Every structure is written in structure tokens, then in C-alpha cells.
Queue: 2 jobs
Job 1
Amino acid sequence: MRAIAYFKQNDIHFSSDLPEPRIGADDEVLIDVSWCGVCGTDLHEYLDGPIFMPKDGETNPLSGKQLPQPLGHEFSGVVAEVGPKVTKVKVGDHVVVEASLGCLDTHRWPKTRLSCTQDKPCGACRKGFTNCCEHNGFTGLGVVGGAFAEKVVAGERHCIKVSPDLPLDVAALVEPLSVSWHALRSAGFQKGMTACILGAGPIGLTTIAALKGAGAKKIVVSELAQIRRDFAQSIGAEVFDPTAHGTNAAEVLKKMSGDDDGFDFAFDCSGVKATFDMGLAFTTFHGVCVNVAIWGHKPVDYYPMLVTCKEKILTGSIGYTTLDFESVVNALQNGDIPLDDCKKLISGKYTLEDGWEKGFMQLMHHKDKCIKILLTPNNHGELKSAK
Ligand SMILES: NC(=O)c1ccc[n+]([C@@H]2O[C@H](COP(=O)([O-])OP(=O)(O)OC[C@H]3O[C@@H](n4cnc5c(N)ncnc54)[C@H](O)[C@@H]3O)[C@@H](O)[C@H]2O)c1
Ligand SMILES: [Zn+2]
Ligand SMILES: [Zn+2]
């Protein structure tokens, strides 16, 4: 099978002779991949990894699987084959896949080293917070092979059917959109509220789309890079340059909420001390600061009375569940999240063969110019070159 796989540290490359995945458990689905997006996490595996991927010679504790493994966790495809117990999807259906894996999936892998099982999962899985699973892992990030490949196998419970009318390239964005959707949902964002996003990378931008879908009254984005501010503006956000107003920045931003007291929500999609502090400064009393960013191990200090005196809520959001995927698919299909905005996020579409040079390398060296690059194994649909 043709795929872009993680072979070992600093070695990701295209190969045409990787083993094709097959259905093992009765509730598995074989998917013919249409499009798969290159994510910052994939680049991170190359530059600083292995992070999620098994180390050379080791196996993944959830699945017992080794390297090499195709990368790719943001994807859409067409069902090619289903296991005997699958009822949720059928051959020919268009699907997206909720990529997180945990206790509830261990029955699929005889070589699992976890003591948790589908019948006796960890506390988080038992309570439905599968995104907080103690053993959380991902399709395409070390547990099982991902979708920079011709075929991928997923458990039925992770497959979400999409309408044949939803373009399969846009459907590949459901995964990053679900990261943002989950952040809104878990933090209690409601229609008519105001929000400021800190950072307009791919996740900040999908958060604009999710906020539009959720009926935000006002969406402002604070971003350092002009090119990214322009982009955020092109999909309907008001923008703010955090360097333009010196020590007054938080006050100026606060006024942009349209309310003297500040914004109802801050979504930190940058993860630096400056954005952490800024969010706390421009949110209103009872405002919510949501940390979406992944931080390194360095702690950040802050003055707790900033939270206490205005009864603010400081919270975070990790990953997604199938409910977020279903909600995003609905929002795309009923027009709440505009398809045109999503299409603008796709900066390039290439074949798997070209994927390392035109996808991975392009994003590593021209991060500011590209948002989302999609790769296809089978040339489903038209390709598009980055400008
Ligand atoms: N919580 C989750 O489940 C989840 C999932 C995926 C990604 N993430 C994380 O979300 C974050 C965003 O991801 P991304 O791919 O968009 O990253 P990115 O690095 O492309 O974007 C970050 C943006 O923040 C901007 N920025 C930096 N300092 C700033 C400042 N002081 N003020 C305003 N903007 C500033 C940068 O210019 C950049 O455009 C990362 O930390 C990523 O690891 C979290
Ligand atoms: Zn990702
Ligand atoms: Zn669990």
C-alpha cells in the first residue's frame, strides 16, 4: 500500500510497499481514504518526536503495534468494507473518523498491554469523557496506522457518516473543527455571547468557524502575524494586533467586545504567557478563559485574585468526542458553519507521492503562508497548489 509513514526518529517518508490494514475485530470498518490534512502535531513528531509514536523497537501500549505506521488523523473517506457486527455505516457511505482511541477500543487488539477494557474502562471513559481517557491515543499517531495512506481501519463507534453532498475535502476539516467545537461546548459557550481568540493558526481559525456556527455575537482575533490577521478577517473575524498599543493592549481589546466590561470568552490558541495574561485581562466578570493550546512543561504564574474578584472561570479543553464530530458535521450540512470559509482554509491539495515535499516541508518552512494542506492517495477530486 502507498503511504507516508513514520519509520523512526527523523524519518518520515513515502513508501509504496506498506502492509494494507485489514478488518480484525467484528466492529471495525475499512475506509478508502479521500483526503487527510497535515497537522502541526505531525510536524512535531518529525521535528521533536517520537512523542505519540512508539520509540524504535517498542510497541504502543494500547494496540501492541510497532513502527512503521502511516501518519494522518484529520481525514475523510468512503467505506470499503465492514465487519460482521457493524450497523452504523455501510459500504459506499462517506465518513469522517473521530481519531481518539482509549480503553473502549482495547477489544480490537489482542496484544494490548492495558488492564482497562471495554467492560471495565477508566473513570473518564466510564463517565463519557472519552477525550480525557487515562490511556488516550490517536489513529495516525502511534496506536494504529493513519490516513496518509490508501486505506485505514477504524472502529465503528468512531465513524461519523457525512452526506454525499458535503465535499470530501471540506469533510477532512471536521477533525480540527471538532477541537474548536469541543472547546466551545465543554466551556459552555452560548449563542449571542462575545469571544476573543488569541492566535490565528489553524486552530484559532477553526475556532472562528466554530464560533460562527455557534451563533457568536462578536468574534475578535488577536494575532501577531499580519498575514494571519488578514486571513482571519477574510473569514469574518475582527482583528487586533497585540503589539500596536503597548501596555494598553488589553484595554483596547476589551473595548472591542462592545461591552465596557470585556468579552464573555477568551480562547487561547497560542499558549504563551502573554496570551494567558491577556485573556484574564480582557474577559468580563464571570467570563471564561479557555486554554486550548498545548504547553510545554514550564509552568506559568498568575495572580489568582484576578480570577477570584470577578468570579472568572479558567478552564481548558482537550481533543473531542464523537458528539463534537456529529455537531460539526450537522453545522456544515445545515450551513451554520459556512463551507466557503472552510474552503479558504485549504491552502493546497496534493497526492501522497508529493506530500512530503509539498505538504510537510511546505508547512515546516512557510507556516505563515499555508493553513491546511490536504493529501490524497487516490486523486479523489481536484488538486490545488499553494500560492
Ligand atoms: N486542545 C487540543 O485538543 C488541541 C488540539 C490541536 C492543537 N492544539 C494546540 O492549539 C495550539 C494552536 O495550534 P495551531 O496549529 O493553530 O498553532 P500555530 O502555532 O500555527 O498558531 C499559534 C498562533 O499564535 C500566534 N501568537 C503567538 N504569540 C501570540 C501573542 N502573544 N498574541 C497573539 N497571537 C500570538 C502565532 O503568531 C500563531 O499564528 C497549539 O498549542 C496546539 O498544540 C490543541
Ligand atoms: Zn491534528
Ligand atoms: Zn479510558
Job 2
Amino acid sequence: MIEIIAISEAHVESFHRALDTVARERRYLAFLEAPPLAATRSFVLDMIAQRNPQFVALSGGDVVGWCDVQRLSRPIHAHGGILGMGLLQPFRGQGLGTRLIRHTLDAARAAGMSRVELSVHENNANAIALYKKVGFVIEGLQRNANKIDGVYGNVILMALLF
Ligand SMILES: CC(C)(COP(=O)(O)OP(=O)(O)OC[C@H]1O[C@@H](n2cnc3c(N)ncnc32)[C@H](O)[C@@H]1OP(=O)(O)O)[C@@H](O)C(=O)NCCC(=O)NCCS
């Protein structure tokens, strides 16, 4: 049974490990490794203080997935937020991503956001399918925005309006 709960400081180390593991796959995230633990802790504490939605999926007490929406800071953008998510490989393809994103989007809406945006690598078909399924639409394409191990990749920009 995998539980989805709001993140707390007690989950920081486990969240950091999960983030680092997915980042080191070098395929999906905008990081190739997690930021340092101290920076990750500051990020999480700031998300909690700002009441930004950040949920983790726990299996046996360990973080196996996360989804968050960080509210944009400038006054003219502050109705919107940026979504990020990931699951450890063994937990993919079983509906957990769907549960996690729906939970997080409900919280973003409840927090008064009216726009959620994200960027996704063009070759990440599973993520794009998930985002479309929950209502995101494609707004743009950034050509050669990534270069990983010498290979350029396009990035798709998507957003959902409540
Ligand atoms: C992208 C990710 C969050 C999706 O979560 P998930 O739990 O694997 O996805 P779900 O099982 O909830 O499936 C969601 C949808 O994705 C698509 N999908 C997922 N796995 C798929 C597969 N193996 N083949 C085809 N489609 C698939 C389907 O459309 C599915 O919806 P459906 O089952 O109702 O048709 C997860 O795979 C992941 O963490 N990937 C690596 C990190 C990452 O890409 N993060 C996002 C960066 S932008």
C-alpha cells in the first residue's frame, strides 16, 4: 500500500535520495544529480512555509515519488505555479503518477492557483501522456533546449488552466 502525504521535514533525506536516483537516470529531469542535501532541505522548508503543494508517495516509510507545484514569485505571475514530479523506476506504470498528480493539482487549485505549467523532455512519452490525461495542453516547444551526453533534446512546455 503506497500512501500519498504532504511532505514534512522528516522526509527530506528520503526525498533527496529519490530525487538523486531519478536525476542520475539522465533522461527525465532538469538535474543530472540532486542539488546538495542542504539546498534540498531549504527548498522543502520554503515550500512548506509558502504553503505550496508538495506531496510524497511513501512505501514502507521511504519516499518513492514526489509531486510539487511551486508558486511563481512575481506579482503578475503569482496565480500560477510550476509542477515537477518523479517516481522511482519500480513504482512507474501502475497508476501512482496519476494519483500523485491529481492530489497535487487539487491542492494547487485549493490554494487559489489558476494556472499550472511544466516542461517535459520531448522523448518522455509516458510523462506527456500523463499530463495530457489530467488536462495539460502543449503551449510550446523549445528546440535543442537540453544537451545530455552530447545529444540535443527538445523540451515541451505544457500548462493547465483551472
Ligand atoms: C512520468 C511518471 C511520473 C508517470 O507516472 P506513472 O505512475 O508511471 O504513470 P501512470 O501509471 O499513472 O500512467 C499515467 C499515464 O501515462 C501513460 N503511461 C504510463 N506508463 C506507460 C507505459 N509503460 N506505456 C504507455 N503509456 C504509459 C498512460 O497514458 C497512463 O495513463 P493510463 O494508464 O490511464 O492510460 C513516471 O513514469 C516517472 O516518474 N517517470 C520518470 C521521471 C519523470 O519523467 N518525471 C517527469 C519529468 S517532466
